[in-house]
């Protein structure tokens, strides 16, 4: 694009921001980092989220949790499907953003399409996993005894750097389908599509605070994700050995659950199925006497 | 007498929880001295009963003799608490027992069904008292109770109580016809409220008769009433308590629910016919160390 | 309104129950016990033994071997060999048959095991006989049947064993916890290295005898006695694929940290501070029984104990009165006496901890009530205790005491009850008492805990999944859900 030609319209560059509590704030720290194209051109300045941004996201997520968990699976499924619909409408933009950072257009299209498939797949799970996982337990005493899954609460999501959009979609969709609220620290190397994805969520009936998206540096924020006492679980893929050890060590503070999804599950065309949903569920067993 | 307030205090009852509590009483292991004490205590709490159409004065006389002379070889045994008979037999029972301390109890109020005009039932009660009955075992109108006419049940108990005069009133709920433990509790509350001196589970003519579950619920009603008002009411399970083992379980339940104060024939009775001989057999076994045969215990 | 009367029930005078003790001889104890490795009893490499004593009579019951790192290595090697060589290869139905056999022999020897449990751990024989032992047998029996039916448990997914499981269990339900750990591990095809608690090793060692008796292949289960350091060696051993731990939250966190960055699987069943919520419309007498069961069962040495009572203000006076009366009938004393309700506190150390909390509670301003039941002179004893007017910020309302001590608070609204119940880092269990079905579900759904007892408390069954939320640990034990802890599960592909 030549900026000197008098006939050419000057394009309007997009400002990428964080997504916290249904709003698009800049980082409170005022810091940014650069997203560059494969050839090294500056594409955008992204917010380099701070631990205070994370803290703020946890507060709004905690507020959003009871409402989201209480919605029917049917309703959550509809919202997940709505996300897929909105993504479909913005395929071109997403493909452009993915390919602008060094993915071939063909592979980028595949990545965006598979991301959409993830949401369709988990939209259909939202009102079924509980039935599949639940049980009425045949205890020997005169009691009605049943077990049902309940969402863990706030899930910190650490998707792989690449594929950035598909990684986020693969981790986010099962967490949401299961009634959890999320804070995602998206790809450092290809953050554009994930950041745009926040706008798609915003127009998809997702209640404020249910999905929060931070851009920034994993090295900086992973310790805060894993030590935060009000984060109930971490869902990650592709952590380095060091990152994994650190996360698990820190998780001991409040015994937050740490779940790693294998990287091949991220990029596979097959959807990851039931396991990721259940990995973010607690099982509650209730007893009640049967009598008169 | 108004019912308001009485039934408002009637708590829900969970039958599974009651059964669990009962099971726990049954795990108490009563041995040695505590067993001997229990056997004698149970014996002293018996209302020796004969309530059959074929009863004769002769049969009642023999029963009264047995009540006074439980076992020839054990002269220092307590006597039973009372002899329980139909109103027609009160006179002869009273003659036999005299003032030996064994009371005469009469089932009145058109026992066992209670299906008669209240005026007739009152007259029957007064007659039994006139003939010397010291205790009256009345039945409530279960039909009225199940139909929800609690006021009627209250009023009939108040009326019979008045007819009793000095005689003690035991109110039979006939729990086998009340179906649920909540009904048992409700009927207990009504009876206590209306002036019962004792509440009693059963006539013995309907199955199931006394069960530990039903008795526990009734004991808890007595306890709550005592703690709220200070009034002391007695308890009489009747029917089905046929041996010492079961009787001791009832005593354990009584002790752990109402405390030692209730461990007296003044406040607890067993309505039973065959229990006495089994208790006697056990007492002899405890003192002799030899297992007994029923051939050595008279069946009157 | 309840009228005030001084009408006290009398439980002190008159007829009492004579002692009815089981004979300690029934335990048939040996003087000394070795480690159980590769199907044989072997001496510890170090040659060291420690005493296990009775918390009631204070007598030494037996000498028990102390396993160190070298013994752990031997046991893991044996378990690995058994896993590769036999256990993961034999037909699943055969695995199941071994478990059935174990269940049967436990039933046959249950009196001996119950007496041993009460001698070594201090719990009343009524509980070891009527609760622990039947559940132990039931756990083996239940899991036996799963061995050849695992594919039915997880349709659409493929399952396989994890490998060698290292298991560390506590002293409050010694044999029952061994059963909870071993039965599902074996049913799913894993082999086991297990360490019973230092103060209660004897029933596990008797279980080792039973495993020999049923000809379980050598190395499938290895039983190592010892203290915390033995447990640590198991946790750290590189060839252990999975750790299952039941115990304190403090140690659970340490284990979590130790395993960080390894690929070892982990399940934790840790502490609790459960709220038992009683609404004014509850079946009160049954609720009182549930409260008693909730906190005085097993001397309160229960991770899921209902150690906080939240009672609706309008009935608090009545409930407390009923509770005190009920407590007066509880017999504290000789664990072997069939009439004992509350046995000995498991160790001097634990007694000291409980006594510390009794002081703390009073210092914090809560009103203490203890029953008048006489305590034996020798041994570790704590009478059943209530703290009235406790507040949410008191330590006795926040921290796990693990003794027969109940902290009582009142509430007015449903929301307040739920908020107070959840205001804790723990999340193992909870109780709700109300006669209203809709309210029971409303509250039980909102309690953040893995097990919710509505109109009952402290019920256990091998078919019923058990485990915590939050700092009470993760993973479930029991039921179909409990199998997951010992399986690698993958999606089978297809049209996803």
What is the H/E string of chain A? EEHHHHHEEEHEHEHEHEHHE
Q: From the 3D coordinates, which CATH architecture of chain B would you assign?
A: Alpha-Beta Barrel
The total tally of domains of chain A equals 1
What is the 3D shape of chain A? globular
CATH superfamily of chain B: Aldolase class I
Radius of gyration of chain B: 19 Å
Largest sheet of chain B: 8 strands, parallel
Fourth CATH level, the homologous superfamily of chain A: Aldehyde Dehydrogenase, Chain A, domain 1
Structure description:
- The complex is a heterotrimer of chains A (292), B (300) and C (496).
- By secondary structure, chain A is α/β, with parallel strands linked by helices.
- Chain A is 44% helix and 19% strand.
- Chain A has a single domain (32-281), classed as Aldehyde Dehydrogenase, Chain A, domain 1 (3-Layer(aba) Sandwich), CATH 3.40.605.10.
- A five-stranded parallel beta sheet of chain A has the order 7-6-5-8-9, sandwiched between helices. In chain A, strands 3-4-10 form a three-stranded antiparallel beta sheet. In chain A, strands 1-2 form a two-stranded antiparallel ribbon.
- In chain A, helix 2 (73-89) packs antiparallel against helix 4 (105-125), helix 3 (91-100) runs antiparallel to helix 7 and helix 4 (105-125) runs parallel beside helix 6 (164-177).
- Chain B has a single domain, classed as Aldolase class I (TIM Barrel), CATH 3.20.20.
- Chain B contains eleven helices and eight strands.
- Chain B has an eight-stranded parallel beta sheet with strand order 7-6-5-4-3-2-1-8.
- In chain B, strand 1, helix 3 and strand 2 (82-85) form a beta-alpha-beta unit.
- The longest helix of chain B is centred in the last third of the chain and has 18 residues, at 212-229.
- Chain B starts with 14 loop residues before the first helix and ends in a 12-residue tail after the last helix.
- Chain C has 496 residues and is of the alpha/beta class.
- Chain C contains 16 helices and 19 strands.
- In chain C, the strands form five sheets. A seven-stranded mixed beta sheet of chain C has the order 14-15-16-13-12-17-18, with helices on both faces. In chain C, strands 9-8-7-10-11 form a five-stranded parallel beta sheet, sandwiched between helices. Chain C has a three-stranded mixed beta sheet with strand order 1-5-4, with no helix packed on it.
- In chain C, a hairpin with a 2-residue loop joins strand 2 and strand 3 (40-42).
- The model of chain C has no long low-confidence stretch (mean pLDDT 96).
- Chains in contact: A-B, A-C, B-C.
- Chains A and C meet through strand 4, helix 9 and strand 10 of A and helix 9, strand 18, helix 16 and strand 19 of C.
- Strand 10 of chain A pairs parallel with strand 18 (451-454) of chain C.
């Amino acid at each position: 694009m030549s900026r000197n030609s008098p006939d050419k319209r000057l394009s309007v560059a997009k400002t990428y921001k964080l997504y916290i509590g249904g709003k698009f704030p800049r980082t409170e720290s005022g810091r940014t980092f650069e997203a560059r194209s494969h050839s090294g051109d500056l594409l955008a300045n992204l917010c380099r989220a701070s631990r205070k941004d994370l803290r703020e996201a946890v507060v709004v997520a905690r507020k959003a949790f009871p409402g989201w968990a209480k919605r029917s699976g049917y309703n959550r499924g509809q919202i997940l499907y709505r996300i897929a619909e909105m993504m479909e409408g913005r395929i071109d933009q997403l493909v452009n953003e993915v390919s602008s950072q060094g993915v071939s257009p063909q592979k980028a299209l595949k990545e965006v399409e598979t991301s959409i498939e993830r949401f369709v797949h988990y939209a259909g799970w939202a009102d079924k996993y509980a039935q599949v996982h639940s049980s009425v337990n045949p205890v020997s005493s005169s009691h009605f005894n049943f077990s049902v899954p309940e969402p863990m609460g706030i899930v910190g999501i650490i998707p792989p750097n690449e594929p950035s959009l598909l990684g986020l979609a693969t981790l986010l969709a099962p967490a949401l389908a299961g009634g959890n609220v999320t804070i995602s620290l998206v790809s450092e190397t290809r953050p554009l599509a994930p950041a745009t994805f926040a706008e798609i969520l915003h127009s998809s009936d997702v209640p404020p605070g249910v999905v929060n998206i931070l851009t920034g540096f994993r090295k900086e924020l992973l310790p805060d994700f894993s030590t935060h006492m009000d984060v109930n679980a971490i869902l990650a893929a592709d952590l380095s050995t060091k990152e994994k050890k650190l996360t698990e060590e820190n998780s001991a503070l409040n015994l937050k659950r740490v779940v790693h999804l294998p990287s091949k599950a991220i990029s596979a065309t097959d959807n990851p199925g039931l396991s990721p949903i259940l990995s973010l569920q607690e099982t509650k067993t209730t007893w009640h006497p049967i009598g008169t | 007498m108004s019912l308001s307030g009485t039934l408002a205090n009637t708590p829900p009852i969970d039958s599974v929880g009651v059964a669990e509590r009962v099971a726990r009483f049954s795990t108490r292991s009563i041995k040695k001295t505590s067993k001997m004490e229990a056997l004698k205590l149970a014996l002293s709490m018996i209302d020796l009963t004969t309530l059959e159409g074929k009863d004769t004065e002769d049969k009642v006389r023999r029963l009264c003799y047995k009540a006074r002379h439980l076992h020839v070889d054990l002269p220092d045994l307590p006597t039973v608490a009372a002899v329980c008979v139909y109103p027609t037999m009160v006179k002869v029972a009273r003659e036999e027992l005299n003032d030996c301390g064994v009371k005469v109890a009469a089932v009145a109020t058109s026992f066992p069904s209670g299906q008669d005009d209240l005026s007739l039932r009152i007259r029957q009660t007064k007659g039994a008292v006139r003939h010397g009955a010291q205790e009256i075992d009345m039945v409530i109108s279960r039909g009225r109770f199940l139909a929800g006419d609690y006021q009627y049940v209250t009023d009939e108990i108040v009326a019979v109580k008045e007819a009793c005069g000095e005689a003690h009133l035991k109110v039979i709920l006939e729990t086998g016809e009340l179906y649920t433990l909540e009904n048992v509790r409700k009927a207990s509350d009504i009876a206590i409220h209306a002036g019962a001196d004792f509440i009693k589970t059963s006539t013995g003519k309907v199955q199931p008769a006394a069960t530990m579950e039903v008795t526990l619920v009734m004991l808890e009603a007595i306890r709550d009433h005592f703690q709220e008002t200070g009034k002391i009411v007695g308890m009489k399970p009747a029917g089905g308590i046929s041996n010492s083992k079961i009787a001791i379980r009832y005593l354990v339940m009584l002790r752990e629910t109402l405390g030692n104060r209730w461990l007296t024939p003044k406040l607890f009775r067993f309505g039973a016919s065959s229990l006495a001989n089994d208790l006697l057999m056990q007492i002899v076994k405890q003192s002799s160390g030899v297992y007994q045969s029923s051939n050595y215990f008279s069946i009157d | 309104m309840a009228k005030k009367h001084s009408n006290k029930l009398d439980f002190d005078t008159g007829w009492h129950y004579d002692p009815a003790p089981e004979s300690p001889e029934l335990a048939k104890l040996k003087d000394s016990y070795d480690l159980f490795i590769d199907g044989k009893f072997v001496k510890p490499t170090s040659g060291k033994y420690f005493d296990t004593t009775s918390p009631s009579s204070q007598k030494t019951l037996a000498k028990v071997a102390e396993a160190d790192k070298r013994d752990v290595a031997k046991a893991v090697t044996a378990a690995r060999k058994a896993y590769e060589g036999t256990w993961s290869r034999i037909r699943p139905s055969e695995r199941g048959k071994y478990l059935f056999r174990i269940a049967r022999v436990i039933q046959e020897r249950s009196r001996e095991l119950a007496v041993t449990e009460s001698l070594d751990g201090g719990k009343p024989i009524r509980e070891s006989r009527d609760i622990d032992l039947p559940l132990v047998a039931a756990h083996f029996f239940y899991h036996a049947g799963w061995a050849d039916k695992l594919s039915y448990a997880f349709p659409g997914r493929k399952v396989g064993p994890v490998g060698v499981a290292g298991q560390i269990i506590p002293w409050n339900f010694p044999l029952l916890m061994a059963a909870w750990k071993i039965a599902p591990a074996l049913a799913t095809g894993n082999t086991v290295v297990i360490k019973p608690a230092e103060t209660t090793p004897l029933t596990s060692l008797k279980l080792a005898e039973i495993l020999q008796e049923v000809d379980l292949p050598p190395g499938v289960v290895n039983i190592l006695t010892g203290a915390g350091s033995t447990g640590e060696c198991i946790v750290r051993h590189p060839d252990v694929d999975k750790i299952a731990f039941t115990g304190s939250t403090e140690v659970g966190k340490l284990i979590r940290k130790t395993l960080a960055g390894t690929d070892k699987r982990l399940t934790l069943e840790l502490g609790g501070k459960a709220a038992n919520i009683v609404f004014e419309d509850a079946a009160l007498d049954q609720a009182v029984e549930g409260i008693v069961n909730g906190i005085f069962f097993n001397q309160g040495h229960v991770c899921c104990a209902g150690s906080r009572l939240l009672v609706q203000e309008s009935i608090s006076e009545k409930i407390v009165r009923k509770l005190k009366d009920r407590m007066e009938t509880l017999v504290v004393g000789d664990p072997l006496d069939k009439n004992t309700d509350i046995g000995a506190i498991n160790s001097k150390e634990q007694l000291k901890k409980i006594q510390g909390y009794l002081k703390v509670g009073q210092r914090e301003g809560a009103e203490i009530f203890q029953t008048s039941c006489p305590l034996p002179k020798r041994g570790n004893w704590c009478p059943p205790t209530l703290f009235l007017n406790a507040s949410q910020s008191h330590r006795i309302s926040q921290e796990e005491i693990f003794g027969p001590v109940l902290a009582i608070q009142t509430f007015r609204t449903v929301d307040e009850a739920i908020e107070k119940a959840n205001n804790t880092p723990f999340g193992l269990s909870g109780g709700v008492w109300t006669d209203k079905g809709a309210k029971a579900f409303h509250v039980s759904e909102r309690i953040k805990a893995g097990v919710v007892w509505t109109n009952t408390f402290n019920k256990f069954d091998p078919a019923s999944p058990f485990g915590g939320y939050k700092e009470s640990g993760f993973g479930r034990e029991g039921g179909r859900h409990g199998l997951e802890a010992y399986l690698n599960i993958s999606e089978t592909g297809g049209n996803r």
